[in-house]
Design brief:
Layout: H1 2-14, E1 29-34, H2 39-61, E2 67-72, H3 73-78, H4 80-85, E3 91-93, H5 101-109, E4 115-117, H6 125-128, H7 139-142, E5 150-154, E6 156-157, H8 168-171, E7 176-177, H9 180-192, E8 197-201, E9 209-211, E10 217-219, H10 220-230, E11 235-239, H11 248-256, E12 263-265, H12 273-278, H13 285-298, E13 303-310, H14 317-330, E14 334-339, H15 357-380, E15 386-394, E16 400-404, E17 410-414, E18 423-431, E19 435-440
Parallel strand pairs: 1-2, 2-3, 3-4, 5-8, 8-11, 12-13, 13-14, 17-19
Antiparallel strand pairs: 6-7, 9-10, 15-16, 15-18, 16-17, 18-19
Helix pairs in contact: 10-11, 14-15
Bound molecules: S-adenosyl-L-homocysteine and iron/sulfur cluster.
Residues 37-38, 165-166, 168, 203-204, 240, 242, 267, 269, 307, 309, 338, 340-341, 343 line the site of S-adenosyl-L-homocysteine.
Length: 443
């Protein structure tokens, strides 16, 4: 979601005469878009600010001003503390106020200093942000080259679930769903710019309940069906879902709507019921397994991805083994796993029985070995198959393109750049842990 937010901030500033640069020494304005989900990400902000302070000083010596902005969830969570710890920062802006960036930068140009904007404003951010332009050179494309074939689109933000380890409900605010018409308009703009595959985003995307064009409330299943029907989008994905909101209509979309990709990211966090209860996940291990079973009946080829936390306070060896056994039982094509990180202000941070760092590290290493072996064997199971690949950018080697399979695997293929932005069948010849290699299939 931060990638998406960076694109929108960048577009909001394009209209103000700014354009993006890949070289920080040229930047009149630096925006750090930050993440507060784990301590490591949050602390990185201060080390980056140290580096930016140096850039600002060097530029000042040659008579150039540099405005420094901290955006994102660290901005939201720490607010004025940031300008206290790092006076180099001119502006702190929380995730619900990005549409106010031009106005805030105007205030700074008029002499305001150390502005902190972390309210959740009454007016809605999405109705005030300018239309999508998806510039080549926008944030997500600078690092990896043009990637206009795929895009993110936020449809839902915030969360009301309050898992005991998580900062999202505090930093992103309460759950909010955008109207179907807004989403449709944005998607059509993206398609006009060459987008063929969209990932609908939300902290709790499958809790989506937005107002439809007929005034009725649309679920995520309704929205996917609508977008599949009224636009020319070729592939639809959504992320991140919660087990409790994985209703039958949505599960059925994976069977009945060919544009919905056979891939699902569904975090389970822990395989032990006692830990799930302490996390306030409000579902059991069996609930998760039942959900997976239904999904696999509806869509036998579905590839699964997940998020897992090890070392939640009080997690015993046996409870960690239950996480391992759940991974063995389900089998994932991809995954994201983390050591529990105590976040200030969350209920779990105050629990007495925090797990020592070395124990967390050992558990994470063991879990990741298993997950990576599963990922590799899923990739190897694709050898010899023909998969439709959407080509999204040039590869590192000349003459090579990189695309995505329906299962979100990266696929490297020797192919002409004319194929960028379109879907072609690829015969998979070989597979590694992180990507596949193949050749264009003969028609
Ligand atoms: N809404 C999604 C997850 C959003 S946060 C869900 O409910 O599943 C993304 C992931 O970060 C989470 O799934 C979790 O695995 C991880 N995470 C969140 N808070 C964390 C913390 N305090 N320590 C470690 N990992 C955390
Ligand atoms: Fe955080 Fe997801 Fe739980 Fe919401 S449902 S509190 S975003 S982990």
């Amino acid at each position: 979601m931060n990638v998406y937010d960076s694109e929108r901030m960048s577009e909001a500033l394009n209209g103000e005469g700014y354009r993006e640069t890949t070289n920080i020494d040229d930047a009149d304005l630096v925006i750090l878009n930050t993440c507060h989900i784990r301590e490591k990400a949050a602390e990185k902000v201060y080390s980056d600010l140290g580096r930016i302070r140096q850039v600002k000083a060097d530029r000042k010596r040659v008579g150039k001003e540099t405005l420094v902005t901290v955006a994102g969830c660290v901005a939201q969570a720490e607010g004025a503390e940031i300008v206290r710890r790092a006076p180099v920062v001119d502006l702190v802006v929380g995730p619900q106020s990005y549409h106010r960036l031009p106005k805030l930068l105007g205030e700074i140009a008029n002499g305001a200093r150390n502005l902190v904007e972390t309210e959740f404003p009454e007016e809605e951010k999405f109705t005030h942000l300018p239309e999508r332009t998806l510039q080549e050179g926008a944030s997500s494309t600078v690092a990896s080259g043009p990637k206009l074939a795929t895009a993110f689109l936020t449809i839902q933000e915030g969360c009301d679930k309050f898992c005991s380890f998580c900062v999202v409900p505090y930093t992103r605010g309460g759950e909010y769903s955008r109207a179907v018409k807004d989403i449709e308009t944005e998607l059509k703009r993206l398609i006009d710019r060459g987008v063929r595959e969209v990932t609908l985003l939300g902290q709790n995307v499958n809790a989506y309940h937005g107002t439809g064009p007929d005034g009725e409330t649309y679920s995520l299943a309704d929205l996917l069906g609508h977008l599949a029907n009224v636009t020319d989008i070729e592939r639809l994905r959504y992320m991140t879902s919660h087990t409790n909101d994985m209703n039958d209509d949505l599960i059925t979309m994976h069977r009945d709507e060919p544009k919905v990709m056979p891939y699902l990211h569904l975090p389970f966090q822990s395989g032990a019921d006692r830990i799930l209860a302490a996390m306030n996940r409000k579902h059991t291990r069996q609930d998760y397994l039942t959900c997976i079973e239904k999904l696999r009946v509806a869509c036998p080829g579905l590839a699964l991805s997940t998020d897992i936390i090890v070392g939640f306070p009080g997690e015993s060896d046996d409870e960690f083994e239950q996480t391992i056994s759940l991974v063995e039982e389900v089998v994932f094509a991809q995954s994201y796993s983390f050591k529990y990180s105590a976040r200030p202000g969350t209920p779990a941070a105050g629990l007495p029985d925090q797990v020592p760092e070395e124990v967390k590290s050992k558990r994470l290493t063991r879990l990741q070995e298993l997950l990576f072996a599963q990922q590799r064997s899923f990739n190897e199971s694709c050898i010899g198959k023909t998969l439709p690949v959407l080509f999204e950018r040039n590869g590192r080697k000349a003459g090579q393109l990189v695309g995505r399979s329906p299962y979100l695997q990266l696929v490297n293929v020797d192919a002409s750049p004319e194929l960028l932005g379109s879907i072609h069948n690829v015969e998979i010849g070989d597979a590694g842990g992180n990507s596949l290699n193949g050749v264009i299939a003969s028609p």
